[in-house]
């Protein structure tokens, strides 16, 4: 691909100077700068996607599901109740971190969180009723890059680990 850029004379001189220092033609040096810049831009997204994909190990998920079933059946022992609370706390922390990374990525891409969730195939296990937000709360949510369809995000305990990207 051929790309023509109109740059200021001082920038052109700086590009020529640095290219000469690197032993490259200005066009080759500019291409290298562009490649490095694009890689640097992709790095934050990759780190955010890695944070979004964090979750409990499979064994912990299985234990969590078992304990939930025992709680539902009302056969949970006090020790199991403590274990369930500890696992729930771990999930809540992980999912809050995932939500933070998801919000950062949505802001980075200039997209609503719900659209990014759909693009990444993220869903909530348990749909929640539509939250009742005041107009000022809706404005605050919109200001942070979220849209009003974020109710699934509120059920962060219901998220499951997504497949590796």
List keywords for this structure.
165 residues; mainly alpha; disordered C terminus
Structural notes for this entry:
This protein is mainly α and 165 residues long. It has two domains: 7-52; 55-165, no CATH class. It contains six helices and no strands. The protein has helices at residues 9-22, 26-52, 58-72, 78-109, 113-120, 135-143. The protein is elongated, with a radius of gyration of 24 Å. The chain starts with 8 loop residues before the first helix and ends in a 22-residue tail after the last helix.
**Fraction in helix:** 55-70%
User: What is the residue-averaged pLDDT?
Assistant: 77
Shape: elongated
List segments where confidence is low: pLDDT < 50 over at least 5 consecutive residues. 126-131, 145-165
Q: What is the overall number of helices? A: 6
Largest sheet: none
Tell me what portion of residues adopts beta-strand conformation. Answer: under 5%
Strand elements, count: 0
C-alpha-based Rg, rounded: 24 Å
Structural class: mainly alpha
- Measured between the Cα atoms of the first and last residue, the distance is 29 Å
Q: Note the run of SSEs as H and E.
A: HHHHHH
Q: Domains counted in the coordinates: how many?
A: 2
């Amino acid at each position: 691909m051929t790309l023509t850029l109109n740059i200021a004379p001082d920038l052109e001189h700086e590009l020529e100077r640095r290219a000469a220092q690197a032993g490259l033609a200005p066009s080759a040096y500019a291409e290298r700068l562009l490649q490095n810049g694009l890689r640097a831009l992709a790095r934050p997204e990759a780190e955010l996607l890695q944070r979004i994909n964090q979750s409990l190990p499979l064994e912990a998920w299985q234990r969590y599901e078992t304990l939930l079933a025992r709680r539902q059946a009302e056969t949970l022992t006090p020790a199991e109740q403590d274990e369930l609370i500890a696992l729930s706390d771990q999930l809540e922390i992980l999912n809050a971190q995932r939500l933070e990374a998801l919000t950062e990525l949505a802001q980075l891409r200039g997209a609503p969180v719900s659209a990014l969730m759909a693009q990444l195939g993220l869903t909530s296990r348990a749909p929640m009723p539509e939250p009742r937000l005041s107009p000022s709360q809706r404005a605050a949510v919109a200001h942070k890059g979220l849209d009003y369809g974020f109710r699934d995000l509120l059920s962060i305990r219901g998220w499951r680990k997504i497949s590796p990207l």
